[in-house]
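2024-03-11 09:14:02 INFO receiving multi-entity request
2024-03-11 09:14:02 INFO entity count = two
2024-03-11 09:14:03 INFO echoing inputs for audit
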Amino acid sequence: MPVCPSCRRKTVMEEIEIGRTAKLYSHTIAYVAPKGFTAPYFQAFVDLPEGPRIFSLVGSECLVERGVLEDGMKMRLIVEPVADTPERSDELTYKYVPAHHGNGSRH
Amino acid sequence: MREVTIIGVGAHPTGRFLEKPLKELAYPAIWNALDDAGVTAADVNVAYFGNSLAGLLTGQEGIRGQVVLQHAGITGIPIINVENACASAMTALRGAWLEVASGAADVALAVGAEKMNVGDSARTIAALSADSEFDLSEMGMQFTATYAIHPKINIKSRMQEYGWTAADLAKPAVKNSYNGSLNPLAQYQRPLTIEEIVQSRVIAEPLTLLMCSSISDGAAAAILCAADLAPRFTGHMPIRIASCVLQSGVYRLPDDERPDSATASAFAAYEKAGIGPEDLDVVELHDAMAPAELMLYERLGLCAPGEGPRLIDEHVTTLDGRVPVNPSGGLCSRGHPVGATGLLQICELVWQMRGEAGPRQIEPRPKVTMAQNQGGLLLGQDSAAYGVTILKC
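2024-03-11 09:21:47 INFO inference complete, emitting structure
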């Protein structure tokens, strides 16, 4: 983005690397999903320590059940395919899982 | 700027009309408006045509307005195509208003038309997803869920903060389904109870199916005329556009302290009209999900934060209340053919102000009214377009 969203002046925006942590701002379980995604699945917004609040899916290792996520909990960044369909299997994105999940472990 | 009046309105019933193409939905709305105004097709100097989804759903990406309006005999004039997601119709109205206010035209037509039922709801939902910034829908964001958890709406956190219950979230739908039951043009005409709304299928916690606006086909139109020329055409009481505001959303970081965009656009409209929220006699607002109505009460200045359910409990916003909200049935009961909704709101306000609303007529007749319409979702937390129109008579 060549324009700062806060002051709206043309500027040089500095790219920063985000860390691997976030805080869960809000979440819900959606029981209807767009094409390529399987319901039920989590929808979430997370706060990054670097400033932004972003939309995120929750990593597939996380069981989709009430009570698994709690707003305010610490989350950890993972990378996995964005959608569930084979056509998009090489399309990777960021997702978050609860920080207390071990690497790759499942419930 | 010249004073502009609405001298005619018309609508197609809202519902599921699988066999009707877009032009067949729009035609009766346009001609009902022309006949209502006492205006012929030849009297129309300019037309604005609002639609959101025809490009993706029917393949008619370009010249939508010219295709639809030629079928209705509106030809040989400037026709401007308007796409602004669920706020397309209010955007069309604003264009028509500016044409007349500026003196460029004496008589302008504003149309909103949408055909959403194409026999494949997955296609319709995919097309609707394109009304969010594309990156968001491609990465799996589900639109209903955003009402539950999106930072600008966050019904879930409001439940915690204000102690709202599932029953509170259902109350706007109870009220509006009753209003819709009195509206022969509404998609749903059966009053609903709190229990059946709360117990209907969960779409995204805490939102259930009967709290959601549905897939609708429909169309609406309005004829605008310079106030001093109106008596040439019509004997109807002139209804003046006191203000017509359109604002895009703004990019917000979590610590953004600027007023919410729905609030900013409504208060800009109040200021231009020289009124405040306390002067409103009736409001049609954008309840795409029923609990959003509770939030919009706050944002439009109708109540303090958290007090939304009380406005319904205490019959402030019911048909018999001080400021009835969504007498048409709103988006959930009258229906939400997205690119037509803003003008469907305007039709309802005009009928109420003229005393033509039949069994749902508000007494005494409203004199100061507001329609609030919004659409689209941007990366950066705001809706894409906020439209607010205030009418006076």
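2024-03-11 09:21:48 INFO post-check: The radius of gyration of chain A is 15 Å.
2024-03-11 09:21:48 INFO post-check: The interface with chain B takes residues 5-6, 25-37, 41, 43-45, 47, 51-53, 55, 57, 66, 71, 82-83, 93 of chain A (CB under 8 Å).
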